[in-house]
Every structure is written in structure tokens, then in C-alpha cells.
Amino acid sequence: MERRGDVMELRWADAEERLQGTLHPALPREGQPAMLSLHVGAFEGAEFTGPLTLTVHLKDSPAQVTKTLTRDGVNWHTELTFDEPGLYELEIRYQNTHLKVLTGYVTVAAQPLPPELSWGLLVLASGAALVWGVRGAMRRMKAPASPAGTPEAGTATASTTTLESSASTEERDSTVPPPDAASNR
């Protein structure tokens, strides 16, 4: 089994026949239908027209679904609906000159969020982003308009001035030698 785009391709061959098929979509989801199409071709002799038997079951689960498929034109078609997510085993049986049993595995994904819930979460997140953006813009517009005499502005200026004056005092003290006790007299 090999994934090609949105289709899972099934291929098998021996000296007498080949089986080819597709499963669409390649990554089926629980509760959603998937279409399986199969074709058996003979390398020699008469064309195979007999029925195919398909068995589908969740890996390591005793419950299984078995379908007998009849040929529809050139291929055999069936619609599969998987009940729960997990790894499913597909078993295809048919008999032309010998009994052939082919097994493949398909991973079924869980159902995504319902579209209504997804859209609701998207609208809620967009609304929150809009509110925060408007709130931030309003704060920026109010900040320059506040007068310099407000307590907040005065506190910031005073603390900056204090830091600058103490730093300049430290610089002066560190570069100038201490006054001599005798020179003060």
C-alpha cells in the first residue's frame, strides 16, 4: 500500500495474477465513507470475474465486517465506513486457480472538531485580538496626552535625576583624591 496524493494505492502480483486498487481518501476518518476500488488482472488465461471477499476489522479486535463484492464493470467497488479511529486490517480473498489472501493496513483518524466549533473558536480568538489591540492603542494615545505635572511623570523624573546625581558624585569622588586634613585648617 502506497499513498499518492489523496489516494492510497494497493498493488500485488504473483506469477498468475495481479491485484490493483485504490482507497479514497488515503487517510479516512471515523464515521466518514471511504471508497475502495479493486481490479484483478490475469497474466495468462481467462479473465477473473468471480467475487472478492473483503474483511475489515480493527487490529487486535475480534469484531469484523465481511463483504462479498461482485464485479461492477471492470472493477469491484465498495464503500467503507470505519466506526472508530485506529489501525484497521483489510483482508482481500479471491480464488481463481488458487486461493489468494492479501492483507493490508489502513490508519483511520479521529473526527476533527465540528465546523461550527472551529468557526466559533476562530471568531472568539479574533474578537479577543481585536479588543486587546484597541485597548493597547487607547493606552498609547492616552500616555503622551498626560501632563508632566502628574505624580507618575514627576516620580519618574525625580528618580532619574537622583540616579544621575549620585552617579556623578561617585565619579567625582573616585577621581579626586580625598581632601587632606591639614589643608582644611
For the structure shown, list the relevant keywords:
185 residues; alpha+beta; 2 domains; elongated; YtkA-like domain-containing protein
How is this structure best described in words?
The protein has 185 residues and is an alpha+beta fold. It is 30% helix and 37% strand. It has helices at 115-145, 151-175; strands spanning 2-4, 7-13, 17-24, 33-42, 52-58, 65-69, 71-72, 75-81, 86-95, 99-108. It has a six-stranded antiparallel beta sheet with strand order 1-2-3-4-8-7, with no helix packed on it. A hairpin with a 3-residue loop joins strand 9 and strand 10. The model is unreliable at 153-163 (pLDDT under 50). It comes from Myxococcus llanfairpwllgwyngyllgogerychwyrndrobwllllantysiliogogogochensis. Residues 143-185 are annotated as: Disordered. Residues 143-168 have a biased composition (Low complexity).
The helix-strand sequence is EEEEEEEEEEHH
CATH class of the largest domain: Mainly Beta
Strand content: 35-45%
Helical fraction: 25-40%
Q: Which oligomeric state applies?
A: single chain
Report the span from N to C terminus. 104 Å
Named CATH architecture of the largest domain = Sandwich
Shape: elongated
Number of domains: 2
Helix and strand content put the structural class at: alpha+beta
The CATH topology of the largest domain turns out to be Immunoglobulin-like
- The tally of helices reads 2
The CATH homologous superfamily of the largest domain is named Immunoglobulins
